[in-house]
User: Which sequence fits this backbone?
C-alpha cells in the first residue's frame, strides 16, 4: 500500500518531504504534484522504478522519459545545450515545459530514446516539487501520471492513492495542480519541433 502525504502547497512540511525522499532513495515509486499535473517519479538509476512506470503507463521504448531538475546547473549535467538553445530554454523556465535534448553520458542508456539517444528535461515551477528536488539533491526520473486509454491525467491525490495503491509506494498531495501536461519541445534536430501542446505557451518556440 502507498503511504499518503498531505502537504501544504505553499509551505510544505519538511518532515513529510524528508520521508518521501527516503522512500525514493530506498527504491520507491511516488506520485507527486508539478506545475502541470501529477507525475510518477523515482531515482534516475532505479531500473525497477523505470519498469514500474512503463507497466503503469503501458509505455514502449520510444517514450521520452523526463528528468525533472531543480535548476539549470543540474539540468546541464544531463543534456547537451548550445548557447542559442540555452538562452531560449532559460527564458521559459521554470515552467510547464519539457525539452527533448541530446543526453550526456551521465544519463543511463536505458532512459534514452532508443534511436535518438535523447531525454526529456524540465524545471518545474511548483513549490512542493522544488522542495522534493532540493531535499533529494538530484533529478527525479519522471513521467506524466496518465493512465492507458484515459484522455486526461489523474488530478486528485486521494484518487491516485485509491486507484494505484498497490502500484506505488507514496502519494504526495498538495491539492489540485491541473490536468494539462507540459508543452513538449524537441531540440534534438536543426529546428525546434513542438511535439505536444500543453500547459506552457508554445508560441515562443514557433
Assistant:
Amino acid at each position: 500500500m502507498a503511504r499518503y502525504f498531505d502537504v501544504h502547497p505553499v509551505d510544505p512540511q519538511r518532515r513529510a518531504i524528508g520521508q518521501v525522499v527516503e522512500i525514493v532513495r530506498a527504491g520507491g515509486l511516488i506520485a507527486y504534484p508539478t506545475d502541470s499535473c501529477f507525475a510518477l517519479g523515482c531515482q534516475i538509476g532505479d531500473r525497477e522504478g523505470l519498469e514500474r512506470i512503463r507497466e503503469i503507463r503501458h509505455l514502449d521504448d520510444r517514450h521520452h522519459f523526463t528528468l525533472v531538475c531543480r535548476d539549470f546547473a543540474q539540468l546541464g549535467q544531463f543534456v547537451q545545450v548550445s548557447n542559442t538553445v540555452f538562452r531560449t530554454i532559460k527564458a521559459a523556465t521554470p515552467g510547464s515545459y519539457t525539452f527533448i535534448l541530446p543526453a550526456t553520458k551521465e544519463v543511463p542508456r536505458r532512459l534514452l530514446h532508443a534511436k535518438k539517444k535523447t531525454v526529456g528535461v524540465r524545471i518545474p515551477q511548483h513549490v512542493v516539487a522544488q522542495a522534493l528536488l532540493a531535499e533529494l539533491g538530484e533529478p527525479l526520473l519522471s513521467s506524466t501520471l496518465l493512465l492507458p486509454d484515459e484522455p486526461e491525467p489523474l488530478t486528485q491525490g486521494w484518487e491516485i492513492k485509491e486507484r494505484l495503491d498497490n502500484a506505488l509506494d507514496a502519494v504526495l498531495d498538495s491539492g489540485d495542480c491541473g490536468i494539462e501536461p507540459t508543452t513538449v519541445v524537441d531540440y534534438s534536430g536543426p529546428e525546434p519541433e513542438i511535439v505536444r501542446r500543453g500547459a506552457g505557451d508554445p508560441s515562443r518556440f514557433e
Notes: The mean pLDDT is 94. Strands lie at 3-6, 30-32, 39-43, 66-68, 97-102, 118-122, 140-144, 170-173, 183-186, 193-196.
